[in-house]
Amino acid sequence: MSFKRRREFLFVYSVKDANPNGDPLNANHPRYDGETSQILVSDVRIKRTIRDQWQREGLAVFIDGQAKTLKKRIEELKKDFNASTGKEALAKCIDTKLFGATFALDKESFSWTGPVQFKWGRSLHKCKTEMIQGTAAFATKENNEHRSFRNEYLVPFTLIGVYGIANQYPSKETGATDADVDKVAEGIWQGTLNLITRSKVGHMPRILLEVTYQEGFNGAAGALDERLSLLSSDGSSFTEDEEFYIRSPKDFVLDIQAIKNRLVDLKEDIEAIKLWRDSKINILGLEEFKSEFANKLDLQKR
Questions:
Q1: What total number of domains does the chain contain?
Q2: 102 is a domain residue
Q3: Residue 134 pLDDT
Q4: What is the rounded average pLDDT of the residues 255-271?
Q5: Orientation angle between helical segments 178-193 and 43-56, nearest 10 degrees
Q6: How many Å apart are CA 284 and CA 254, to the nearest integer?
Q7: Average pLDDT score over the chain
Q8: N or C: which terminus of the chain carries fewer CB neighbours within 10 A?
Q9: For residue 105, is it within any domain?
Q10: Regarding beta strands 270-277 and 297-301, do their DSSP bridges make them parallel or antiparallel, or are they unpaired?
Q11: Backbone dihedral region for residue 220 (phi beyond 0: left; psi -120 to 50: alpha; all else: beta)
Q12: What are the φ and ψ backbone dihedral angles of 9, each rounded to 5 degrees?
């Protein structure tokens, strides 16, 4: 089985006083484009958010977040699913069916291209990062009252856009179905709400757009995140310096007019659109979007 209708996703979320995606090779500093002053988030981080949510819901996943060898994990899955091969076991896991897998163990090897992929997320405005210092919970030595210091990085506020696509063709190999793809949007929204580590508290989903195309459509609107823009709360453009001082949804308006214009070009090929939004976000062009796609749009406030 496989799915036959292409989909595109646009996810926008905010991060306040937290670390969106630390770089372990750079003291866990938030991933950052020094040329544009934009915060970066890897596709791997986005997939982990979704995968962790699927795991909370009791769905079978290959990468379960535990420190164990590939051999041990495959043995567990074979036992759970009464499978005789690694491929047979991974065909039961929603993350491998959607995100793909590269597998090599003993004499068995294969590689699946995942039908659902995300590009790196980027903040929609210029941001600063801050280093915060604190003391450790315990002394470094017995009978020593001095405690060591710890450093951590955070972003005061950032609004991040993430684009994804579900391509129907690789699903013929992985066996991903429409029911599997249906779980992507819920996974990314609820998964973001359920981030609970110290570095991730402060993440909030704001906008989620899912476009489903007619069967047989092979194109894409493409990079919907790059068609978003931020305006100041009075509707004027930000200066470069002003972007650094955005601290809450009250400080900006999200302009989706360029997205509407692009999707109008593809309107005849669109089967359905889902738009989830946080009511705290002010959206320029929303009423026109609702009017243009009234017969195709499922609009939900979250």
A1: 1
A2: no
A3: 66
A4: 97
A5: 100
A6: 6
A7: 93
A8: N
A9: no
A10: parallel
A11: beta
A12: -125, 145
